[in-house]
Amino acid sequence: MLRHHPNELRARHCHDDPFVAVVLEGGYQEAGDEGRFDVRPGDALIHHAYESHLDRVEAKGARVLVLDLPPELADSPHVRGHVADPDALVRIAARDPRAASALFAENFVATPASAFDWPDILAHDLRADQGFALADWAERAGVRRETLSRGFRLAYGCTPKAYRAAVRARAALDAVRTTRETLLDIAHRLHFADQAHMGHAVARLSGAAPGWWRRQMDTRRA
Asked: HSE (CB half, 13 Å, CA atoms) of 187?
């Protein structure tokens, strides 16, 4: 169980392990690698490995149930949803956390994400396409260049450039861990300067180089 203090601001931080957060009381806004969400009791957010976000807690604080991410939701494209009976999850989690995670998977109903403002649209575009120039995006969106970085940082706790780098590193790590695509091809597809650049980004995010992750994958398949 996690309790957030009233008006607490948790600066952008990274979670190495995947998990699910189910809001029981109060509410907060989360802004991170998967978007920006306002959550209330019954709402749930899926977090994948090495994901970063910040939390802005409401004046009444928040109480949150944290569960392991069920395997059947590990590849879900939906990260926000709702459960009808969060109290049932609390009761089951007290005696069997794995059963609570399984029940969560059965009852999770995805809800569509919505953009609050241009920073959310930019965050979405950065997740979807690594190739565009930020100056070009600002011009198309009618946002002054000097406003772009400042406004995005206020919403997400980092600059668009840093956000792009984090998204790119996570995408590279995911490809390294789950596909047989060559490291050189991954680096090229994700617009890294070269394979070494990608390797540094993956190691900085996860603490291990791409080659180490590939060896773990080979070991699991052996």
From this structure: 15
* CA R_g for the chain: 19
Those residues with Cβ within 8 angstroms of residue 94's Cβ, 6 or more apart along the chain or in another chain: none
Instruction: Report whether pLDDT(222) > 70.
Output: no
Query: What's the pTM?
Result: 0.91
Give the domains, in start order, of the chain with CATH numbers. 2-110 (2.60.120.10), 118-221 (1.10.10.60)
Residue 88 φ then ψ, to 5° = -65, -35
Q: For the segment 182-217, what is each residue's pLDDT rounded down to a tens digit?
A: 999 999 999 999 999 999 999 999 999 999 999 988
Residue for token digits 């490809």?
175
Type of residue numbered 54: L
Q: Read off the tokens for 186.
A: 């991954």
Q: What's the one-letter identity of residue 186?
A: I
Q: How confident is the model at residue 74 (pLDDT cuts 50, 70, 90)?
A: very high
Q: Which residues contact 213 (CB under 8 A, 6 or more apart)?
A: 173, 176, 177, 202, 206
Residue pair 148/164 in contact by the 8 Å Cβ criterion: no
What is the pLDDT at residue 221?
58
Residues linked to residue 77 through DSSP beta bridges, in sequence order: none
